[in-house]
Design a protein that fits this description.
single chain; Spore Coat Polysaccharide Biosynthesis Protein SpsA, Chain A; two-stranded antiparallel sheet
Length: 251
């Protein structure tokens, strides 16, 4: 199984910190935040390769980081041909570019590179197998309608199948939000290319999920513990504080 870390955004909300440095390489707890994700992936026996998807502007930053990091699994970069926010491919567009570049036609784990969480990825893989290889979206219960307005929100049935998904709704139907962590079957991976070929929105994965649930079975995996979606200075400081406080512990 291959794992993809999405790191192709320009993070303008974090300027000036991200003007010349990708968000995923900003320090959290004294080390680049992406390393927490990479280390979680490296502990999973089923994952044999990690691919980091980034852009031309930050390609050299990641090459330098990778030259100093000592991986225990094969890690490679795929660099999309964009240099700014206005010509970026978007999350789904970047996945489509990567799938074509690598000629992927297999199940994939996909994680946002600014998405720090406490749960063990082994539990996600087990859940994916339990659901017979159907597509999975990792969900987190914010327990707040107000906070849920800022995320993609899922509605699930009794069997945890996602029956509705809406991006940043004014009136969220639930407090279960998407956390930029997914398991896609080989059919789900092919559906990304179909979705893009139809001219659908390439920017946010939530729009793809909304499209996908009408065509394939997609289940929610609800996890607990700490979760940080690092998209602002406030969330960066909050994550840095917790990881610094818990340095040396397995989060």
């Amino acid at each position: 199984m291959k794992a993809i870390i999405l790191a192709g955004g320009y993070a303008k909300r974090l300027w000036p910190l991200t003007k010349n440095k990708p968000k995923q390489l900003l320090s959290v707890g004294g080390r680049p935040m992406i390393e927490y994700i990479v280390e979680k992936l490296e502990t999973q026996k089923e994952i044999d390769k990690i691919i980091i998807s980034t852009n031309e502007k930050f390609g050299e930053n990641f090459k330098h980081w990778l030259s100093e990091y000592k991986p225990t699994k094969d890690i490679s970069l795929v660099i999309e041909p964009t240099l700014s926010e206005k010509d970026k491919l978007g999350s789904v567009g970047a996945l489509g570019y990567l799938i074509k570049e690598k000629n992927f036609d297999e199940e994939l784990m996909i994680i946002g590179g600014d998405n720090l969480f406490e749960f063990d990825l082994r539990d996600l893989i087990y859940y994916y197998r339990e659901k017979k290889g159907n597509n999975i979206v990792a969900l987190y219960d914010l327990k707040s309608i107000q906070k849920a307005r800022s995320y993609g929100v899922a509605t699930v049935d009794e069997g945890m199948r996602i029956i509705d998904f809406v991006e940043k709704p004014e009136n969220p139907p639930s407090t279960l939000v998407s956390t930029a962590c997914y398991m896609l079957s080989s059919e789900g991976v092919r559906s990304i290319l179909t979705y893009l070929d139809k001219g659908e929105n390439p920017d946010t994965i939530g729009f793809f999920i909304k499209w996908l649930i009408k065509r394939e079975r997609v289940f929610g995996f609800v996890f607990s513990g700490k979760w940080f979606d690092i998209g602002s200075l406030e969330s960066l400081k909050e994550a840095d504080l917790m990881y610094t406080k818990n340095k040396g512990e397995d989060l």
